[in-house]
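Page 42, continued from yesterday. The earlier attempt failed because a stray header line got pasted into the input along with the sequence. Redoing it now with the clean sequence only.
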Amino acid sequence: MIILGIDTSCDDTSVAVLDGTLVLSNIVSSQVPLHALFGGVVPEIASRKHTELIDGIYRQALMEAGLSLADVDVLAVTQGPGLIGSLLAGICFAKGLALSSGKPLVGVNHVEAHAMSIFLEEPVEFPFISLVVSGGHSVLLLFSGPCRFRMLGSTRDDAAGEAFDKVAKYLGLGYPGGRVVEELSRAGRADAVPLPRPMMDDDTHDFSFSGLKTAFINYVKKYNISKSNCCDILASFQEAACDVLTAKTVRAARSQGIKRVVLGGGVASNNRLRDLLVRRCASEEISVFIPSPGLCTDNGAMVAATARFYADSGLFSALDMKVFSRMKWSRDIC
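This time it went through. C-alpha cells are written below.
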C-alpha cells in the first residue's frame, strides 16, 4: 500500500511517501529561522509559509520516491491537534488532491501519529503506554490496539517542550529552547539547584510544568543568573522535568499492568529523557521503544504510518472533515 502523508500541524511543512512501512521519501521544511526572531511560533507566519511551500514539497516527495500521484493508494493528512491556520493549509491541499484524483483520504490525529512513529522502525505489540512530549503536548496514552487509544493524563498548563522554550527565551538563549538547554546542561550539575517536581506524587497521571518554570525564573532573578553562569540551573531544570515525565510514565504503566512503553514527540529527542526512561523502566522490567531522533519531530512519515492502520480497517475520512485544535481524549474504531 502506497500512502502519501502530509503534516502542517505547527511550523514544519512535511510530505512523505511510504510503501507499507518503508519510507520512500520524507521531506521536512523547517520554519525555525523565521520564528526564532520572535522566540516562538507566530501562527499567521506559519500558515502563510505552509501555503507557500506545500505544493513544491509535495512534488519533491513524489520525485524522491520515484512515483506519481497515480501510484498512490491512500492520502493522509494531519487533522489536529495543532494551529488551526497551519492545519487548514495541509488539509485543504490534501482534500484538493483527493477530490481531483479520487484517492481515499485519512485524517490523522497528530499526537497519535507521534506515538505510532515507532512502527516506522520496529513493530510494537499492543497494548502499550505512550508518553508523547512536545512543545504543545505532554500526554500519556493507553493504546489497546491499532486505532484504539485513550488519554490517561495530560498537562494542566505548560507542556514540557513549551517550558523548555520559555526558560531558554527568558535567558536569551535562542529558539527552539530544548536543544540549547540540553547542550548547556551537559556542563552543569543536575543536583545543583533543588527545583520542585510539580504533581510528582499526586494520584493522577497529569502533568504541570508552569510551577517548575516559575521556580526557575525566580532563582534566576534572585541569584542574577545569566548566559555565562546558567549551566547548573539549566541542568537542574532539565533533570526536574525529566524526573516527573519518567516517574509518572512508569507509574501509569504499573497501574495499567502494561509492560511496554513508547516514547514520542519532539522532546523525545532529549538524551537525558531517553536515558532516564530506559533506566527506570528496566528496574520495573518494562520494555521501552523510542524512535530515532529524526522521527521524533513533526514529519509526514508518521502521519502516513498511522493512516495505514486506518486504511487496513477500511476507515477513511469524508471530504468535509474539519480540523481541530485540541487533543481528543480517545479514539476507537468500534
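Notes: The first helix runs from residue 32 to 36.
Reminder to self: strip header lines before submitting.
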